[in-house]
Amino acid sequence: MSLDGDGLRALLSTAGPGAVADVLLELDEPARRALADTVRAYRDELDPGPVRPHPHVPALLVAGAGCLPTVAGVVVWLRRRELLRSADPSVAVHVARVLAAPGRPAIASVARQLAERVRPGSVDLHWPLAYALLGAAGVGPVVTDAMVRGWARYVLSSRSEPYVFSSDTWLPVMLPHLFEVDGAVADTTYWGGMARLLELCRQGRVSREALLTGCLYRMRAGDRRAPMRDVLSLHADLGPTPDEVAAHRQEYLGLLVSEQTAVAEAAQLALRALDDAGRLPVSVLAEAGEVVLLRPEKKLVRTQLRWLDAVARRDPAHLPVLVPVLAGGLGNAAVDLAEQALTVVARHLSAAGTAGRDALRAAAAELTGDLARQAHALLGEALPTARAVVAPGPASPYVALPLQPTASVGELVGELRRVLRGTVEVPLLERVLDGLVRGFRADRHGLAAALAPYISPWTGGWYGLVRAASGVDEPPSRLPSYDYVPKEPALSAVLTRRLVELADQFRAGTAPPELLATPATTDGHVDPDRMLRLLAAAERDGRQPGDADLTQALLRLPRDLDPAFTARAASLTSPAGRRLHHWLDTTPDACTALPEEPGLADLLARAGSTQSLDDAGPRSGGRLALLWPGVLPSHREVVATYLRPHVLPSIEPDRNGDLCRVLPTLARCGGPFGADMAVCLVYGLAASRSADRLYAVDALVALAVNDDFDGDLTGRVLGDLASRRVIVLRRAVDALTEASGVDAAVWDITAGALPALLGMPLPRPAGVPDLLALAAGTAAAGTTRRAVPGLAEVAGRRDRSRLVVEARRLSRAVAV
Amino acid sequence: MHTSGYRAASALVNRKLVLQTAGGRTARGPSAHPRFFTGFATAPAAAAAGLVALADLARTDFRRTGRTADGRGKGGMGSAYRDPVVTGDGERLRFESLSGCCGVYTRLDVLAPGLDGEWFDEGTTNVDINPALYTALTRVGAGDPLRLSVGPDDLTVATLDGALVEKRVPLPERWLRGLAEVPAVAAEFEPRAQLGAAEARAFFQRLQAGPAVRWVLPAGRSLRASTAAVPGAVCLPAAHRLAPLRPLLRFARSLRLYGPQVAAGGPAACSGWELDLGSMRFWLMLSPANDRGFSGEGRLLDDLVLAPPGTGETPDAGGARGADRALIDAGLIAGLSAGASVLDIEAVAARGGISPDRVRSALAVLAGSGRVGYDCAEAAYFHRELPYAPERLAALHPRLAGARTLAGADAVRRVGEDVEVLSGERRYLVHRTSDGRLGCTCRWWADHQGGRGPCKHALAVSISEPSFAVSPLPALPCSSPAVPAPAILEETR
């Protein structure tokens, strides 16, 4: 029989894979090879991206295997994604048939190469054909990660055709790797293969030891939650005997430090069973205790304490070993768990001899607060009074760095590029504005040449400014008008106005030699002397500084001005000079509201300032709020008033609390501490995302350095919002716990918050006991050791709830 | 692809751990199966746990699940275990490994008190770690004496002569370059904080997963987290990458933190975490982000740019040429291998009659070609020649290759106070920033601000306009005064 190219084409478009295989098998090898080009051409002509299965593809796949001349060519053909995704596994039979024909590239080589080249990411595509050909060629299993995963997914877990498990020769080869290959357990468990493994084990076809070793390997190596759950349930179903646990004792011991709580629990359970069988050396128990007693999980720690207690009662000879272990539990970060450890120590201390007392004394030396007092009381020793207090973290107030001007056109353009790519930082923006003004004056054409690549037709203050500085003509319709009312919060409008004003000045040729508002420091304060000098020069030259520039400069004046400066300012006579001394006259020293200032009032009115206060959600361009502290660097409370509605959303679940980022910068502003700052801080401390809470912690640390930080006010805000369930108390407590080094501030906040929470009608929000514990831990640092209203009443109640236990602890701490 | 031929698989049988070796150099020259040490590990449980942690790390890709790599990459079975590199110096054994994502580096240093036995040779080689050995290592208990051999012991030589276990593992360029970059990064580190065992455990309990960048700074006896850099703080980017240290905490006496000098509000930085295990030290280094490998940090570029094109060898650091350069090299290597296990920069400088800065610069280049490592605990370089094909290590860094093309194409010229670089149709201005580094107007600089080394345009300027790039040493990305290390660290140093 013979078949030419056209005949094959006709066949491929009408016949199925079986028929194509039949025809090709009747040809001799040279005739088949002669068709290779036709086969390739046919594939190239196929619709390149059929989403639905293409009807001709299975036959084409077989034809390629039957005609292509080399092993490499056939392997590439059989891995083609566009062919495989339209073929189902049954086509493998016909591929194997044609490859078995005399003269064809060796099926064993094809199968082995296909198998070796399966990747874990393409198991579903490539594994079925590779597996089928390995079987047809009689080649043994090929062990790669992907082949193990494919076997786990399709064969081990299969309940039906085409992958029949019953007579599987792969099992002994694959089983040792099943738990070692990452992801293979997930493949197995997803399709229910774990149950089959257990069944095989009961039938005796899989050894218990192999499964147990595998489970322990996977528990050690870790996995995602769902597969790990199945590994643990397989481990539990196996029910390791004391002999088996004893053989793997050291591995179980290692699992006690696992990040996954369930793994540590399983290990604890197994070791405890070994102990119940009387086969756990006390040294191993001690090692287990040292590890577990410091874990944060209450269940694990309590179980361990009960276990150690039971062994100590059973065999008092072990006390010299066990009591030091129990004393180590005093180091647990959770006070209630540490206290439970102390209770167990107390039970056995007298029988433990000097070793036990020494261990307790050493552990007690590391403790603070009420727990230290209890431990020393147990020892019958006085609390050491002169404890070396380790200096807390940053004790010095924040010092802003000087703002470095750009040194060359290249540096200016480099910084401008960052601005255009969306970086929002006060020092960066100010360096660019300053650099543009100076560059424009020094060499207008050089600047234009350097800016040329960054001219774009987009609207927006910065793009317009770049066009203006480059001398690009703007059609009149593109020019922003002074009557334009920006739909943005007032403090963002300050910058917008400055950009528009400067662009106008560039176009009109009236740009000043330097900007008044360019800050001297990175936090945004201007140098008053420089400002005075520039104003005097402008007055002399008969120039008027830009309105927005002057407004921003006034807002950036530092608080503690030299009286001589005020005197010299009074000598200015120009309108701008008069605005300066009017500002100096009317700014009260401790203002928390902005002073009367005509230019500012105008600006705020244009920007619709009141609107921003009523609107709770962040508006478009909300990131610009990151600049607000730099607009008013000495008026923290004013900025906080504006920011408050923008920080609020961070306490809601799933809201992007991006603006919490502004809190540390806000905290470092000058000016008195006020209620709105307290509210912003509490919102941040109770933010739903932990990353946002950390910003608030930073802000708290920065604020606590100031003398006028009002922790009590912050605490009252916290207590009020938490008791009304506006915020989630537990989050705020977590955040306050993070704020180490500022214990006095934390004590003030907790003490301020507790009265509202203790006095509220039930049910209380979760987290009050934790807040009490935090208060007890920080009370020693408080400068004002005051009574907490409502505490005595709760502490005097007769139940043993955690609330009462912690309340008693706090009242003891306050009473010291 | 790198193929290591081992004489047999490493195994732990009857409390006898034989770590098989493949390739590399010893003091006596290249060797197929170097043999360094045979004797006892004095702290068996900690040593075994350290090796297990090293193996865990080598097969972990933190960019994905945050857990072990699910092998999505290339390679078949065993690719997950990229073998550690071991260096023996006649006194201590150092096992080094880099994570699959190239962003976490670890080293287990078994110090002299941790080893009790006989030394046969010094040098660097690969050691085989396999699943069976891994499982066996997790079974080592504190009380079991552990006999340790690095290299085939006599028994293996006698019975398994010629029998080879071949391992083929992919060795991507970024992995190799990452391993070479690590010493240059570590050399900038200073100790920043120290925690006792209890505080270290408490700190690890509080760690939060996720890709966020945090900073930690000493607060009392513990650490406080912060969202922004402050002088003296240590960067903690993507904290889950510290997980390999957890199982070792129960052996730890202290945890020490290292980091480069940082400016307030600065960008994320690398950091080093060192567990003191008594007779051992476990060192872990984090790259500045989950998805950043050490290979892209570009610390060496400023030094490498001075090398003549094509050699990939030690450059004329600071202008030394020819014989002078060879002298520096010879001096360094001699200083490293002649009896001393770590290098004393001052001594080498004095002996060679060159400035310590030039020695440091030359050392950075030696690190770049994989010939030295850096030990922060001793603040010293040590001799370690990576046991991989030297031509692969010497391959030109892509950014440097681009820079040489630009410099060769005459695309660099002075314009006012800046230098203009023409690259294709684009024009960039390379300039000196206010903190003295070379900046650029390209997107790479806008995004990274030099945090990942100079861009190719700045490198092209260093080549074509050496007078503009006056400082041969990389300036620290810092504009604030140095913060002295806490006093607590001084006494232990």
Automatic annotation (TrEMBL), chain A:
Domain of life: Bacteria
Protein name as catalogued: Secreted protein
TrEMBL record, chain B:
UniProt xrefs under InterPro entries: Znf_SWIM
Record domain SWIM-type: where: 428-466
Alphabetically ordered keywords of this record: Metal-binding, Zinc, Zinc-finger
Highest taxon of source: Bacteria
Name of this protein: SWIM zinc finger family protein
